[in-house]
Amino acid sequence: MTTNEIGKKTTTNIQEKANLIWAIANHLVGLFKPHEYGKVILPMTVLKRFDDALKATKKEVLELNKKLDSQKTIEAIKEGLLCKKTGYDFYNISPFTFENLLADPENISDNFDTYLKGFSDNIKDIISNFKFTQTLETMHKGNVLYIVIQEFNSKKADMHPDKITSTDMGYIFEELIRKFSESYDEQAGAHFTSRDIIYLMAELLVANEKDHIKQNGAVKTAYDMAMGTSQMLGCLDEKMTEINPDSKLSLFGQEFNPETYAIAKADMLIKGGNAQNMKFGDTLSEDQFANYEFDYIISNPPFGIDWKLEEKIVKQEYTKLGYEGRFGPGLPAISDGQMLFLLNGVKKLKEGSGRMAIIQNGSSLFTGDAGSGPSEIRKYLIESDLLEAIIQLPTDLFYNTGISTYIWIVSKRKSKDRLGKIQLIDASNCYVKRRKNIGKKRVDLDDASINLISQAYLDFKENKYEENEFVVESKIFDNNFFGFTKVTIESPLLDENDRPILKKGKPQTDTKKRDTELVPLQEDIKVFFKENVLTYNPTAWMDRSKDKAGYEIPFTRLFYKFIPPKESSDIFAEIKYLEKEETKLMKELFGDDR
Predict the structure, then answer these.
(1) Which of these, 233, 472, 559, 584, could form a disulfide with 426 (CB 3.0-4.6 Å)?
(2) For residue range 78-99, what is the model confidence (pLDDT) as tens digits?
(3) Is the pTM of the predicted complex or chain greater than 0.85?
């Protein structure tokens, strides 16, 4: 069974679990507003998962803690021994569990506070990022804390790692966050990307080395600069394990939203991974992984969102560090920071081997004039031969947007046949329709569509792939195909007799007639000027001192298919047919007298 098939099977089973957990919110009606339910449900779900994981060793941990305290054991050593006893990188040394908290209803608030304070510091950090203290006060005053804990003790809320895998738990969190977002009228896609997209990204990242990993295993690192609940990293880890169970992928991520960061860190603790690699903060202005390099980067950073809050620090890094920093190639418009994340990823790719799959919207392909920040970023990627492929995804694939989106594959280890070239893949017609929409997500990528897109990528040739109703088209271009020189065209200032006005023997420029031409890099500028300008303006000349190089990727135009309009005779026949149908309908409605 493939990763995507496992994911779909899991989704069906786990959605029911998520719905049951969310139903606990019925006890919050009146006390909390609907958009606040997640502030209770999400942290309580995380805490219950910790509680279930620690249940089997609870008695032994309490005994060990008492013994270590009596021996006045050094705190660092004590923490290590307690974690070894639990089998996880966390513990709880309070006498309480979710189950025995119910034994004393009158003191449940104080006892629950003791229970929370009994956790190891890494769990306290998670609780802190949920901003749970005030929520608990409201629950206590409203007399719902007991009933909520009681509900989380039911069989439907059993979240022991042996019964619910990390993958399943990821789905539960996704579904809970989606419900929370919908009740808050917030874009669910701001928090996570659906699994089908991630599985395609993961496949593209490892596609050309699957055989090597299968035979030899791999020890790699992976990073997500906008990790949300860390599901992209989790799916990539699944992919590596699917190829070779002995593979080892160390995961690193940064997230700005405190709640989703808390979930990501909790998930990593349950997995037994290094939760210290999950960092909180704004990636653009508070980079937690400066000087790190990674084998893989997989990410869906926000697009269409301004970077005004980060502007000062980003511009300081750009000015002071240049190419030694992350943003040396240029800065995009302040209204959209997605290309800053792109540059952040490029900087963090391991030299000679790193590969990145990152989501961008269409603006990264073409916005910005020659010499502008976006154009200079494209120029840097293309002239440095880092851009390997761009895949156009179907519209209506994301939860929160129906616009065209693209996966950019950036590589610091292009194969020989890809050197100096860029592959564009149009996969906009490769999808299956959903039976039921989720937000703006109306289509999915199933295994067949992912396989067809991957085949087009791996083949690396100009071809049109058709399978059932799927259509994928691949085109290959030289790097310089996307470049152009913006040349300034000048015309002479004329006198009343339409003769050029000269100064020191040179014609004076008529600035009102100044124009520009975009000359493809693959064409000779002098030949282009002669054929396309002088033919129509024989007195014009080029001011080459104003030349600017630019790059754009006109994806839509390159895959445009001309559909000829109907013949006039066909249109006339269609009109006559509709008139007859109208007459027939009118007779049926009003009788023959009309």
Answers:
(1) 559
(2) 999 999 999 999 999 999 999 9
(3) yes
Look at the chain and report how many structural domains it folds into.
3
Tens of pLDDT along 319-374?
999 999 999 999 999 999 999 999 999 999 999 999 999 999 999 999 999 999 99
* Residues whose CB falls within 8 Å of the CB of residue 220, separated by 6 or more in sequence, listed in order: 240, 247, 248, 249, 250, 295, 296
pLDDT in tens, 107-129: 999 999 999 999 999 999 999 99
Choose among 272, 192, 281, 188: nearest CA to 237.
272
DSSP string, 479-506: GGGGEEEEEEEE-B-B-TTS-B-EETTE
Low-confidence ranges of the chain (pLDDT < 70): 1-13, 181-192, 562, 591-594
User: Is 395 a member of any domain?
Assistant: yes
CA quadruple 116, 121, 123, 125: dihedral sign: positive
Q: Say if CB 222 and CB 294 are below 8 A apart.
A: yes
Question: How far is residue 90's CA from residue 272's CA, in Å, rounded to a whole number?
Answer: 10
Residue 478 corresponds to which tokens in the numbers above?
């030289």
Q: What DSSP string describes 366-382?
A: H-S-TTSHHHHHHHHHH
Helix (H, G, I), strand (E, B) or coil at 312: helix
Write the burial class of residue 215 (CB in 10 Å: 0-12 exposed, 13-18 middle, 19+ buried). exposed
| Helix H or strand E segment including 585 | helix 568-590
Assess if residue 586 is contained within a domain. no
Residue 482 backbone phi and psi in degrees, to 5: -90, 0
Which of 290, 360, 298 has the alpha carbon at shortest distance from 326? Answer: 290
Pair (193, 127) in one structural domain: no
